[in-house]
Amino acid sequence: MAGIFQRLFKVGQAEAHSLIDKFEDPIKLMEQGIRDLKKDLQSTLTSLAEVKAIQIRLSKEAEDNKKRAADYERKAMLLLEKAKKGEIEMAEAERLATEALNLRDQAADKAKSLTEQAIAQQKMVEKLQANVDKLKSQLSQHENELITLKARAKTAAATKKINKRLSTIDSSGTLSMIEKMKQKIEEDEALAQAYGEIAAVDVSVDKEIDEAINKGAPSISADERLMELKKKMGLT
Amino acid sequence: MFEKFFKKKKGIDPLKDLTLAKLKVGYLVDYDMRTWEVTGYNRYDWGGGDYSEEWELKSGSDTRYLEKEEDDEIEWCLTKKVSIEAIDPALPEIIIKHEDPPKEIIYNGERYYMESTGAGYFLKDGKGLGEEFIRWDYLDETGKKVISIEQWGEEDFEAAVGEMVEEYQFTNILPRE
């Protein structure tokens, strides 16, 4: 029992697929596929742009902190030099120089951390870039295929139309009708010929009979027939 | 009325719309092994329906200006600002005195020749009535290197140096929302 239902389901499924197949336009489906891919690519590009922008910002901040660290070191040295020249007190210079060195270390640490983050972000950029390149290449390939497919579909549609027309002409019986007509005409011709032959046979039989009857009878000329008529009328 | 509500937002075609001429603020573009962010867009009105466009590009602490000029064909020029004194310290005085800079300039040991001059309006962000200015453009013997000198008002000068570039040199344009 279950087998019957399963078979019925399969039949229904096959019919449904067949119906859907009728509505499916391969070109339109492919165009939709390309549109979807473009949408995917666009959002991937936007993500890549965001990640890249963060990477650029991190690199710039890392660079700024490196410069800041170098600047603090330069300032610390300047303070010590000034103290050496006696322009400021050594203790004060050392205190400020120590502060400057602390700030230098902070900036250097920040630069190091930012550089590490920038490197990690760069790896992410490369990964996303690879995806973007792959999607772009797929998309270009599909667009080229679509152009070819469109041309092929047009040719197929035209061929289908011609073949259908040809097959319709044959099956509608135009050719067989012509054949039938030809046959009918030939039959009519044959019939006409047969009637002709029969008629010819009848004529010759009558002719033979008349000839046999008239055999030996004197042949009257036209003048003689005129004289005979006048005589009958009493005109002579 | 309904069209306004149901109008579909037209997305960009990532294969066709990401071109140099369609750069927008926020976009990223690769040039000379570096990624540049578009940080500004301006227009120059040269009169008679003649416009040129300019995008400000930033990479790290560097800023460049990419200008698109359309004559018989599209020309791209990439410059960076320099002080007018870096070209010639005497230039401002010469311009004020003669109302024109010299026909030839020597910069970094290379000779540049005045190519064109024009007065126009600078439209910040591509909008507004614009600010009037005069510009003199110079090209070197190869026709590749560029210097431009601008006068804003009576005694305010700006200068830029750079080169003519080709669109293919700019790659990987990335949009941002």
How would the blueprint of this fold be written?
The complex is a heterodimer of chains A (236) and B (177).
Chain A: H1 2-23, H2 26-84, H3 90-171, H4 174-214, H5 222-233
Helix pairs in contact in A: 2-3
Chain B: H1 2-6, E1 28-31, E2 34-47, E3 50-59, E4 62-70, E5 74-82, H2 84-87, H3 91-98, E6 104-107, E7 110-123, E8 131-140, E9 145-152, E10 156-165, E11 170-174
Antiparallel strand pairs in B: 1-2, 1-11, 2-3, 2-7, 3-4, 4-5, 5-10, 6-7, 7-8, 8-9, 9-10
Structure overview:
The complex is a heterodimer of chains A (236) and B (177). In chain A, helix 2 runs antiparallel to helix 3. Chain A has five helices and no strands. By secondary structure, chain B is mostly beta strands. Chain B has one domain. An eight-stranded antiparallel beta barrel of chain B has the order 2-3-4-5-10-9-8-7. The longest helix of chain B has 8 residues. The model of chain B has no long low-confidence stretch (mean pLDDT 90). The interface between A and B is medium-sized, with 20 and 19 residues.
E-strand count of chain B: 11
Tell me roughly what share of residues is in helical segments of chain A. Answer: over 70%
> Which pair has the most extensive contact?
A-B, 20 and 19 residues
Percent of residues in β-strands of chain A: under 5%
Number of domains of chain B: 1
Alpha carbon gap, first and last residue of chain B: 26 Å
**Gyration radius from CA atoms of chain B, angstroms:** 18 Å
| Structural classification of chain A | mainly alpha
Structural class of chain B: mainly beta
Supply the number of helical segments of chain B.
3
- Give the SSE string of chain A: HHHHH
Shape of chain A: rod-shaped
Low-confidence stretches of chain A: none
Give the overall silhouette of chain B.
Answer: globular
How far apart, in Å, are the first and last alpha carbons of chain A? 120 Å
Strand order across the largest sheet of chain B: 2-3-4-5-10-9-8-7
- Major sheet attributes of chain B: 8 strands, antiparallel, barrel
Question: What is the average per-residue confidence, as pLDDT of chain B, rounded to a whole number?
Answer: 90
